[in-house]
Amino acid sequence: MEDHWYPGGFTVPSPTTYPQQFLWDSCFHSLIWAELGDRRAVTELESLFSRQHESGLVPHMGYAEHPETSEELWGVRGSSCITQPPMFGHALAELVRRGWDVPGDLLESAVSGLAYLLRTRRDPETGLCQIWHPWESGMDDSPRWDAWAPAERSEEAWMEAKVRLVRSLPRGPAGFPSGPGDFAVPSVGFSSLVAFNALELDSVGVDSLSDDVHALSRALEPRFDADLGLWTDPTPGSPQSGRSLTLDGLLPLLVLDDPPVGLGAVLSPREFGGPFGPSYVHREDPAFAAGVYWRGDVWPPLTYLLALAARRRGWRDEADTLVRQLVAGAEVSGLAEHWHPDTGEGLGAVPLCWAGLAIVRFPPE
Ligand code: GLC
Q1: How far apart are the CA of 142 and the centre of ligand 1, in A?
Q2: Is the pLDDT of residue 80 over 80?
Q3: Do 59 and 51 meet the contact criterion of CB atoms below 8 Å apart?
């Protein structure tokens, strides 16, 4: 964490691969700093919100060092123009629960960030929150977005397609999107994280739009598919990719009162499970490719979130197992960005800060 600290007030995920600030990474960094008892837990979130747009949107990337470099792609100086899962609700609630003195304006910024997602991004038809770019999910190359991927799914071709999706966004005067472009997916994973983060703030006494949150949670319920055992995205024009067997399809476990499924598939070695944590893609999904970026690899934030869901639901054995797998993966991979579910081999940037989630303890039940 020290090595990756940037004097501008945040931790870069990796100084070589990701030398910018990333939204959900920073929220996880805040939890890690808090566990270390370091005040940078608050500073990290302050710098995140310093780039918030007046609509409430919190950009998914911040460019502190060369702010002019963001303009060509994003049309905004110093940041991107799209967002990422709003994990700041959870991070701030954890700080409050741990007795930290959290500045009131930080809580207000978080509520306005969630209000933007709950209101501007709600899809009138399904009631779910839309993402307007695959990168907004944080799960960049998920098979859930394959309807937009080129037939020849080389890394370069997919990257070009994603750049075209950025350019397709209609822009308001400040460069931020005024609506969706060629990509608009009502995502159950993203919607669950929006609802979860709002509920987190609510749980520490910060009123965060409970009517909207309840409506969003209700919209998740009919998306459960009993045959698949998870929640599906009503992806316009491509029901198949919305039905991919991926872990974001289980994130409603963070928020729904009486879910019709548990974590059996997440732990089963024939399904998602592995000794170093669950693979992002189910082993029987046609897209599964062990060790490939968002196609069959373990992502520390998702293992953490599923362990948290288990812990909150009182599924103590499942929570303990997931935490043990997270620790094992972080150790064997050398604190990697993501890792192989069967061997723990480090993948992507090594080290990357969010592997440090392995040290974060859950508060007592
Ligand atoms: C990758 C991940 C994304 C993350 C970023 C920085 O792009 O897909 O979720 O925020 O790296 O770690």
Answers
A1: 12
A2: yes
A3: yes
